[in-house]
Amino acid sequence: MMYRFINLIITLAPLATVLCNAKVLWSSTSATNYSNIIREAYLLGNGRLGAMPFGSPGNEKIVLNVDSLWAGGPFGATNYTGGNPSEEKYTYLSGIRDWIFQNTTGNVSQLLGKSDGYGSYQVMGNLSVLHNATMMPGTYRRQLDLDTGIHTTVFSDVVGNAFTASILCSYPDQVCIYQLDSNGTLPELSIRLENQLVNSTLANSTCGHGYTGLTGITQVGPPEGMRYEGVVRIVGAGNISTRCDEERGLMVVPRTSGLRSLSIVVGAGTNYDQTKGNAASNFSFRGDDPAEYVQSVTSEAASHSSSQLRQRHLNDYQRLSSAFTLDLPDSDNSSNVETSVLFGRYDSNNGDPYVESLLLDYSRHLLISSSRDNSLPANLQGRWSPDLAAAWSADYHANINLQMNYWGAEQTGLGEIQHGLWRYMQDTWVPRGTETAKLLYGAPGWVTHDEMNVFGHTGMKEDAQWANYPASAAWMMQHVTDHFSYSQNMTWLKETGYPLLKGVTQFWLSQLQEDRYWNDGTLVVNPCNSPEHGPTTFGCTHYQQLLHQLFANMLVLGPLASEPDSAFITNISITLSRLDKGFHLTSWDGVKEWKLPDPEDSQVYDFQNDTHRHLSHLWGWYPGLSLSSPSASFLSGYTNRTIQDAVATSLYSRGIGNGPDANSGWEKVWRSACWARLNNTERAYFELKYAIEQNFVGNGLSMYSGKNPPFQIDANFGFAGTVLSMLVVDVEEVGMGGDERTVVLGPAIPKEWGNGSVKGFRIRGGGAVSFGWDADGKVSWVKGDNEGVRFVDKDGKEIVA
Ligand SMILES: *[C@@H]1O[C@H](CO)[C@@H](O)[C@H](O)[C@H]1NC(C)=O
Ligand SMILES: *[C@@H]1O[C@H](CO)[C@@H](O)[C@H](O)[C@H]1NC(C)=O
Ligand SMILES: *[C@@H]1O[C@H](CO)[C@@H](O)[C@H](O)[C@H]1NC(C)=O
Ligand SMILES: *[C@@H]1O[C@H](CO)[C@@H](O)[C@H](O)[C@H]1NC(C)=O
Ligand SMILES: *[C@@H]1O[C@H](CO)[C@@H](O)[C@H](O)[C@H]1NC(C)=O
Ligand SMILES: *[C@@H]1O[C@H](CO)[C@@H](O)[C@H](O)[C@H]1NC(C)=O
Ligand SMILES: *[C@@H]1O[C@H](CO)[C@@H](O)[C@H](O)[C@H]1NC(C)=O
Ligand SMILES: *[C@@H]1O[C@H](CO)[C@@H](O)[C@H](O)[C@H]1NC(C)=O
Ligand SMILES: *[C@@H]1O[C@H](CO)[C@@H](O)[C@H](O)[C@H]1NC(C)=O
Ligand SMILES: *[C@@H]1O[C@H](CO)[C@@H](O)[C@H](O)[C@H]1NC(C)=O
Ligand SMILES: *[C@@H]1O[C@H](CO)[C@@H](O)[C@H](O)[C@H]1NC(C)=O
Ligand SMILES: *[C@@H]1O[C@H](CO)[C@@H](O)[C@H](O)[C@H]1NC(C)=O
Fold first, then answer.
1. The pTM is what?
2. Where do transmembrane segments lie in this chain (predicted)?
3. Residue nearest to atom 5 of ligand 2 (CA)
4. Which of 97, 269, 351, 567 could disulfide-link 290, Cβ–Cβ 3.0 to 4.6 Å?
5. Which domain holds residue 250?
């Protein structure tokens, strides 16, 4: 299997078609209902900081989040273990396995742990800017411009002064910036950082000349909780007089004749340090007091002019946002309609291509805003939570959700923002997960389960159906492999990607068992639970598919990364040859989710019309490749009718993603992506539209329970992955197949998107393409690098660049 180096020369030919207009989310009413802010506000961030502007004109507030601000963990209890037991438990495994092989199902009661001290992501506080101007009705508008990443509010007061408040969160300067401009003299301004959810034992607002701040702690202790600090500074403070109301920590900027513009920066941090999540640091995760960092980052930012700050933000933001463009027709003339109206009237019978392209752009904005190389990865709510205790702790669920957050990254040119994700796994998963592997499984390498916090929680929680999920890291390894596949960065592979892959591979090589139920000579996982569904059993399809892909990839990547241990590679190769590949048919010709016998009279498992939310057994079809890819080492389902039909049968059986167990957005966009890979435009587009109709609310965010909170960001991110899968099928991994790869353009482009185009679509092997399609959605032209790549349309007809 020879790896072919592809020179990275990106030559994007100029596009003939006119670019679409910059998209904005906008509203003519302010977001003033605090308990509904998550369905009204437009979100901003710079990776580490998240901002949700709300409030009425003259009484503006911005909810601020900091990526690492979590209660619990070692900051909550000194005996915190990341969910690991105090003694070895792997000795129970052989009994558990025997029982399961004899009885087909069983339990892992002896391995289960607790959620003790797990903690929750929590809000830092609000930046409040009060100037009590009385608004002239009908002059208000707030908007988030997805071309600039800047949120703007405009209104006029009753005496005729016009105001513009703009907010941006800058990655280069690591602060958010609020700027108020008026064409008259600014009124007196009262500025404060506040946390109204806790009292002064836990947080205090403070102020001094030209600044105001908030200092807090997640618990008084002992042990002392996590410390957090935010500071607001006036840009160019030397020229502006301020007054400090010490009791309330309020900085007052008096009305000063001729002062028509004021800019402030806000920076924040905590004493969390993810590099202290290992045995050498006693898993303390405790770093320096944030005061010094926050003082210096805000002083530095405030020393620039506001136009410099804005320009530095634009250079950074637009480099990322403009790396990819989807241009769809605005057939309903929606670009001038208020955003909440667009979502309110959206229905799955008609759709609205403008809304669909808006959500694609918003998805990329949200990822750029919640995940950067110096931040923690995007969590269940991205970066945005207005509460002290978030739903599911706003943690990292890794049996679909964390993965889905990154579905849109590589192909839209945001591969680099994932460095925080790699560091998160290296620093917080590997050290504790190495212990978990030893204690629970007697295994080398490392392992994580379904739910992870920022404190290295890698143990198994208390309920097997969702907690017995040691496959989460194996799934994440798809993202690691993909990062190399798209970036071709050999340095990164050797330093970062391969060590992660190797640890997970070592773990799984040690865990596979010869199938003693079917005695078919294959190797299977035992025990396993398919994510959040069914019994504890053996040979769960989902795990088998994940391991098929992991091992096959390792055989290519090991030699590339100069793996010195040839016995390790041989072991992978032998194990792979005996591995059950996770494709068995149900009696009704769907894909089996479990390798369980299927009694003729009663379909206890794998029964028809089981509308469960997860599509775990179709993982190898999408997002995985083990079923779908025609590469020689996979099952070649992309061109195999048996597999395609089984996937389609399972998808029909699974329903449209509104079963009694959940009516969430992520299950719908996953279904859509699977249909797209089957070239089924009608089903793919329906599921996409159905997700918007059912789950996306007036500010473009996706809710978990129909249109009701909790907010869970995965469907916003998964939306991008789904649109991308309707545009391109790029499933032949570089180095895995023949000499020439085939990429299918336009597998599922609906005619409603007719005459659209896309620019900057990354393909495997490095490089990007642009292409467009005709009124029927059939791709008609392609430009870009295509060395070694053959582009075909949906009918298999070659499209020559
Ligand atoms: C504010 O939002 C909450 C939650 O959606 C809702 O129950 C309440 O009625 C809203 N209040 C007002 C005044 O609209
Ligand atoms: C830590 O100590 C508390 C209080 O004694 C106890 O309830 C908890 O179970 C302990 N946690 C662990 C992981 O041992
Ligand atoms: C769980 O499995 C163990 C064997 O691993 C067995 O001893 C125990 O009885 C089982 N418990 C239940 C409730 O089935
Ligand atoms: C299978 O389950 C039965 C209880 O139904 C139990 O008695 C038996 O020990 C189990 N088999 C094994 C090998 O544990
Ligand atoms: C606006 O607030 C200032 C204090 O910040 C107060 O002196 C003034 O009376 C207020 N004006 C109105 C119209 O409420
Ligand atoms: C400020 O702008 C508003 C709206 O354009 C206008 O009506 C008003 O006259 C302007 N005021 C001044 C002082 O220029
Ligand atoms: C302040 O909060 C702490 C911690 O939640 C609590 O123990 C204390 O009673 C509160 N004090 C007041 C005055 O509410
Ligand atoms: C807030 O101030 C009070 C009074 O000075 C002090 O007791 C408390 O410890 C402070 N809280 C924090 C989190 O610094
Ligand atoms: C490749 O990866 C290395 C190590 O992570 C990084 O420093 C470098 O910037 C990457 N190169 C490119 C072109 O992204
Ligand atoms: C499954 O659902 C479909 C559509 O509702 C129905 O036609 C079919 O009869 C059902 N099949 C079974 C086995 O329940
Ligand atoms: C299609 O896939 C199935 C399942 O892997 C396999 O048994 C069959 O031989 C394949 N058919 C062809 C034509 O390759
Ligand atoms: C989808 O189209 C591609 C390209 O023509 C083809 O190779 C593939 O087999 C098709 N899949 C299905 C399910 O028809």
1. 0.96
2. none
3. 79
4. 269
5. 24-69+122-321
